[in-house]
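stage 2 :: seqdesign
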């Protein structure tokens, strides 16, 4: 069937009495917006906004999130599968069609969705879309073929690095870490991520209570969560908060003591801020995003923690050199978070890395002016790109000879020597903690952190 454009077809509203149809419309729309790069924000934000607009309940919003996230997790593979079953290939210049086919295909191949629902609701969405009404027959034919050929498709999952990683990232990771490690990183992304939490008391006790495992790094990992997170024991009482095990390490490197004055720059969403405040530090939390800081404030109220929360640009802070410790979680490309946010791989570009490097440099130098003599500075990013981590520290130390590195010790990271690089900095990879045992299964976010001390 030839694919032709038709943007003048009359709109047909979807039938909201059909279970799951509105959720699939939200998932398709969010994927289309991001694939077509018509919106400049993350999938999580796109889904939240679209779910509110559509009036989805919690169950349907969760279904929309599951479909959209699974689509981005294997977007390269899905594109290959679809292109092979279309006589003219996949029309990449029609993001709404690509999104509709991809979200339908992922339901058939990867999700616990009845085949007839994936196909029928996909066709209904096409008929309700003025741009796709004339292609509903094509949608029906392609999705039905995927149902028939599912076993054959799943028997050839392909190479996770070649098929499910954009070329620019595959090239970068192969150069930085070697082809074998780059492939292991890409494979870890396909596995997704467990739910990690940071607890205020004994990790072992909370792991037993919640049915999880205590990781060697000090976090608790929950491999299967079948209820709303807010309904789990201890959440409402403020005994723990959600935080990836790797993201919990940089704040711990500061080893703050009660009464220490600490600045947390670019603080939202606040997991690290909570760690510092729970340790008894007097924390100034700064971030430019008012909505994100509002969520931080709400979380602190639940946790019963206190901090001075300031909306504004960290670069505008006075150069006081008055803090015992400064934590800078710098804005970055976020390529270390693909286990949880697979859309990042497909919505960011290499130019985003280049654009952020200058901002990171300015924030790094600013953070240095806030550290008192003898105080510590931790610079970190949730990025796998060396320019945003190792290279930033190297040039910082050249510009600021009064700072020196304090190497991370193996005992500070639960004995995981593989997460400490040759310079003594922290470098976690998604393939770390990838063993078969529960306490070493599930991977880590990609994180970089360097601990520095001011010497004058």
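stage 2 :: out
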């Amino acid at each position: 069937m030839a694919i032709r454009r038709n943007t003048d077809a009359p709109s047909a509203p979807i039938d909201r009495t059909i279970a799951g149809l509105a959720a699939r419309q939200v998932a398709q729309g969010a994927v289309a917006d991001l694939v077509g790069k018509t919106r400049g924000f993350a999938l999580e934000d796109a889904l939240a906004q679209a779910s509110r607009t559509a009036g989805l309940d919690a169950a349907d919003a969760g279904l929309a999130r599951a479909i959209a996230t699974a689509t981005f997790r294997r977007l390269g593979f899905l594109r290959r599968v679809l292109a092979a079953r279309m006589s003219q290939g996949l029309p990449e210049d029609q993001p709404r069609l690509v999104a509709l086919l991809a979200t339908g295909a992922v339901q058939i191949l990867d999700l616990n969705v009845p085949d007839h629902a994936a196909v029928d609701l996909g066709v209904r969405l096409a008929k309700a879309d003025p741009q796709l009404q004339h292609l509903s027959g094509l949608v029906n034919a392609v999705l039905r073929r995927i149902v028939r050929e599912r076993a054959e498709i799943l028997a050839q999952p392909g190479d996770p690095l070649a098929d499910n990683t954009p070329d620019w990232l595959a090239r970068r990771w192969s150069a930085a870490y070697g082809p074998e490690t780059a492939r292991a990183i890409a494979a870890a992304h396909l596995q997704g991520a467990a739910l990690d939490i940071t607890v205020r008391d004994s990790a072992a006790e909370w792991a037993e209570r919640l049915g999880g495992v205590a990781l060697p790094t000090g976090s608790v990992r929950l491999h299967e969560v079948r209820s709303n997170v807010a309904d789990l024991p201890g959440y409402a009482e403020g005994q723990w908060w959600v935080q990836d095990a790797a993201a919990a390490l940089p704040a711990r490197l500061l080893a703050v003591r009660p009464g220490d004055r600490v600045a947390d720059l670019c603080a939202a969403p606040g997991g690290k801020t909570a760690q510092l405040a729970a340790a008894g530090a007097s924390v100034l939390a700064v971030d430019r995003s008012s909505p994100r800081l509002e969520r931080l404030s709400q979380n602190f109220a639940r946790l019963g923690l206190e901090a001075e929360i300031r909306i504004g640009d960290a670069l505008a802070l006075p150069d006081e050199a008055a803090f015992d410790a400064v934590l800078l979680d710098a804005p970055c490309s976020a390529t270390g978070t693909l286990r949880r946010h697979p859309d990042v791989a497909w919505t960011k570009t290499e130019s985003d890395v280049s654009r952020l490097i200058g901002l990171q440099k300015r924030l790094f130098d600013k953070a240095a002016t806030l550290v008192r003599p003898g105080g510590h500075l931790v610079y970190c990013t949730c990025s796998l790109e060396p320019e945003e981590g190792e290279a930033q520290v190297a040039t910082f130390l050249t510009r600021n000879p009064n700072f020196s590195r304090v190497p991370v010790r193996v005992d500070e990271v639960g004995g995981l020597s593989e997460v400490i690089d040759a310079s003594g900095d922290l470098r976690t990879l998604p393939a770390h903690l990838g063993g078969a045992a529960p306490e070493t299964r599930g991977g880590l976010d990609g994180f970089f952190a360097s601990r520095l001390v001011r010497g004058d």
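stage 3 :: structure notes
- The two ends are 73 Å apart (CA to CA).
- The longest helix spans residues 350-369.
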